[in-house]
Specification:
six-stranded antiparallel beta sheet, single chain
Length: about 425
C-alpha cells in the first residue's frame, strides 16, 4: 500500500502541460512572421514576372539573335566590331540609315582641326628610281601645294619590277591642303601599256556575282601581281552595277560614273548609258556614283548632298578614296584622311586626272597595296590602315577589289582560277 501511495497523484511528479494550456505566441512575433511571409511571396511574384519578361524579350529578340549569330559565324575578313556594324546595316530595319547618322555625328565631332604643326617629313613610299621616268611615258611631278615642299613631295617613285624597261606602277605622297598641314594624300599611277587590271568580287560584294571566283588574288596569277586597291560603295547603298567578262553581277545604272577595263587593255571612266551589261568588248566594269571630275573640271554638283548624301554625305571629313584617268589613259588611285568629296576631286585633278570618280570611304576600307617579288611575294601597304593587313587581298575578302598585273600578250580578261 505504501508503494502505491508513493507512485500516485500525490507523488510530486507533474505531467507535461496540455497543448491547450501552452502560452499563446505574442502578437508582435506573429506580425513579424506575417510580414516575412508577405515579403517572400512578393519576391516570388517578382521573380516570376522577371522570368516571364525575360522569356518574352527572348521570344521577341530571337529572330535578331539568330540573324546576328548566323551573320557572325559566316567566314569574314573583317574585325569583330566592323562585322557587327555591317550586320546592323544589312539586317536591322532602318539600320543603314541609323549607322550613317551615327557615323555622321562621330566623324563630324572628330573632324581634323585647321592649322596645327607642319610635317617635317613625308611617309616613305616606293623606292628611289635609278633614273627619272621618261617625260613621254611617266606623269609629271605633282605640283606642291605648299610653298616649301618637303623632300620627295609629289615626286613619283617605282614600286615593283620594271616591265618592258619602264616602271608599271609609280607612287607618291603630298600635302593637299594649306589649312591642314598634317594631312597626307597617297597616290598611285598605273601605266596602261604595261599593266592589266582585273576586277574581283568578294565574299558578299557584289551581292549577286555571276562568278564569285576566288575572292582574292588567284594563286596562279601572283607571280605577275603589282598592286591591289579597294573598290567603290556597296551595291545596296547606291545601286552601283558591275560586270566581269561580259557577265552582269549587278545591273549598270545610267548616269553613274563607270570605270571600264577594255579587252585591249585600255581603261576609261564614262558616264554610263549603255544598258544593264557592258557587253563583250569590256573585260570588267564597276560603277560608283556620278563623276567628281569631268574633262578636267570639278563636277559643279559636288556640293549637292542629294547626290552625295547616301553615306556620310559630301562634306564630312573622313578617309576617302577615288580613281581617275589622265590625258594618256593611265589610271590614278588616291586615298587621304580628312577629305570631303570636293577635296578628293581636287587631289585627283592635281595628280593629273581629267576624269575621276569617288570610291569607298571610311577608315575601314581604304586599301592600296603594292608588291615586290624578292624571295617571294612581299606586300606593302601604302597609306596607314590599322583595320586591314597588307595581306588583305591575298586571302578571301568580303568586298570586291582590283588587282593590277604585269601585262601579258592577248586580250585582257579576269582570271578566276
Amino acid at each position: 500500500m505504501d508503494g502505491l501511495g508513493r507512485s500516485g497523484a500525490g507523488s510530486g511528479v507533474s505531467a507535461p502541460p496540455d497543448a491547450a494550456d501552452s502560452p499563446p505566441v505574442s502578437a508582435p512575433l506573429a506580425r513579424v512572421a506575417a510580414r516575412r511571409e508577405q515579403r517572400q511571396a512578393g519576391a516570388r511574384r517578382r521573380r516570376r514576372r522577371r522570368r516571364i519578361l525575360v522569356a518574352a524579350v527572348l521570344v521577341l529578340l530571337s529572330p535578331a539573335i539568330y540573324s546576328y549569330t548566323t551573320w557572325m559565324l559566316q567566314p569574314s575578313s573583317l574585325p569583330f566590331g566592323v562585322r557587327s556594324v555591317e550586320w546592323v546595316r544589312a539586317d536591322v530595319p532602318f539600320g543603314n540609315a541609323l549607322v550613317d547618322e551615327i557615323e555622321h555625328i562621330y566623324y563630324s565631332w572628330n573632324a581634323p582641326k585647321r592649322g596645327g604643326p607642319q610635317l617635317k617629313s613625308l611617309p616613305a613610299t616606293g623606292r628611289a628610281a635609278k633614273a627619272p621616268p621618261k617625260a613621254a611615258a611617266g606623269p609629271p611631278r605633282i605640283k606642291p601645294v605648299f610653298a616649301h615642299p618637303l623632300p620627295g613631295e609629289g615626286i613619283w617613285k617605282p614600286t615593283g619590277p620594271p616591265v618592258k624597261g619602264g616602271p608599271p606602277v609609280l607612287v607618291t605622297t603630298f600635302r593637299p591642303e594649306l589649312d591642314y598641314p598634317s594631312t597626307v594624300a597617297y597616290v598611285a599611277w598605273f601605266d596602261h601599256t604595261r599593266t592589266a587590271l582585273a576586277f574581283y568580287p568578294g565574299r558578299y560584294e557584289p551581292p549577286n556575282a555571276a562568278v564569285r571566283g576566288p575572292m582574292m588574288v588567284p594563286y596562279d596569277q601572283r607571280w605577275r601581281l603589282l598592286a591591289t586597291f579597294n573598290s567603290g560603295f556597296i551595291y545596296t547603298d547606291v545601286s552601283n552595277g558591275s560586270t566581269d567578262n561580259g557577265r552582269m553581277n549587278e545591273p549598270l545604272a545610267d548616269g553613274n560614273a563607270t570605270l571600264l577595263g577594255y579587252r585591249d587593255g585600255r581603261v576609261a571612266i564614262v558616264k554610263w548609258s549603255g544598258g544593264p551589261n557592258a557587253g563583250p568588248n569590256v573585260a570588267w566594269a564597276r560603277q560608283s556614283l556620278p563623276p567628281i571630275v569631268w574633262n578636267g573640271r570639278l563636277n559643279p554638283a559636288l556640293n549637292d548632298s542629294s547626290q552625295w548624301g547616301y553615306t556620310l554625305g559630301n562634306a564630312v571629313r573622313v578617309w576617302r578614296t577615288g580613281v581617275g584617268i589622265d590625258r594618256r589613259g593611265n589610271l590614278i588611285y588616291a586615298a587621304a584622311d580628312g577629305q570631303t568629296v570636293v577635296t578628293m576631286a581636287r587631289i585627283l585633278r592635281r595628280a593629273g586626272a581629267v576624269r575621276a570618280m569617288q570610291f569607298d570611304i571610311n577608315p575601314e576600307w581604304h586599301t592600296l597595296i603594292t608588291y615586290t617579288h624578292h624571295h617571294g611575294l612581299v606586300p606593302t601597304e601604302v597609306g596607314p590602315n590599322l583595320m586591314q593587313p597588307a595581306t588583305r587581298y591575298l586571302a578571301p575578302d568580303d568586298r570586291d577589289f582590283f588587282a593590277v598585273y604585269r601585262r601579258l600578250p592577248g586580250p585582257v580578261t579576269v582570271p578566276f582560277k
